[in-house]
Amino acid sequence: ELKVEQNPLFLSMQEGKNYTIYCNYSTTSDRLYWYRQDPGKSLESLFVLLSNGAVKQEGRLMASLDTKARLSTLHITAAVHDLSATYFCAVDRLYGNKLVFGAGTILRVKS
Amino acid sequence: GAGVSQSPSNKVTEKGKDVELRCDPISGHTALYWYRQSLGQGLEFLIYFQGNSAPDKSGLPSDRFSAERTGGSVSTLTIQRTQQEDSAVYLCASSPSGTEYQETQYFGPGTRLLVL
Q1: What architecture is domain A4-110?
Q2: Do A45 and B106 touch (CB under 8 A)?
């Protein structure tokens, strides 16, 4: 059974600081996703990572994937208040198409 | 609008009643998914439709839950004899084909269901 664990589950950051959210998954997976959810809103796709060593960056967010360790990281650089949201990682198998989500990391950036 | 739309946005019902939730996928997307988001269980897969293939119903929690997709587009999720534990946000997503390697699922705004 495919399981996904995220940590930390809650992260309070000061503006301007860097931090990393970790996502571990239990069995081989074909694709790893990062989504963002604002309170009361739906899920917004951030990144899809497909291969070992894949790195993608968008603004202050950078995601990477290590398939050997079954680990993805979401690195936040110089946090700003607008990044406050809940971040989910999810994995699936090609042709399986069932996203298995982590519990989410609630990020609060304080000024 | 070009995104996934869902209706109603909020639904309050009494225990034992049936409810229907609707999803309009992004135009041209042949793959459609339903998920449920609740405080206790997080985000859970419910069902997946891909083109004209038989749906993958493996995530439906009980036989009170069913879904159909008419004409390869709009989908309806039906919950019969609702229970309080059915209270959750029901999210619909779509993707272009369900078969492309670099495909992303695009989520709708959700229907917030409260069973009293």
Answers
A1: Sandwich (2.60)
A2: yes
Of A43, A48, A97, the CB nearest to B102: A48
Find, in chain A, the residue whose alpha carbon is nearest to that of B57.
Answer: A98
Q: Has residue B75 been placed in a domain?
A: yes
Are B105 and A45 within 8 A, CB to CB?
yes
pLDDT tens digits, B18-39: 999 999 999 989 999 999 999 8
Domain residue ranges in chain A? 4-110
Q: Report how far residue B101's alpha carbon sits from residue B51's, in angstroms, rounded to the nearest whole number.
A: 17
pLDDT tens by residue, B50-60: 888 889 999 99
pLDDT of residue A94 exceeding 70: no
Do residue A42 and residue B109 have CB atoms under 8 angstroms apart? yes
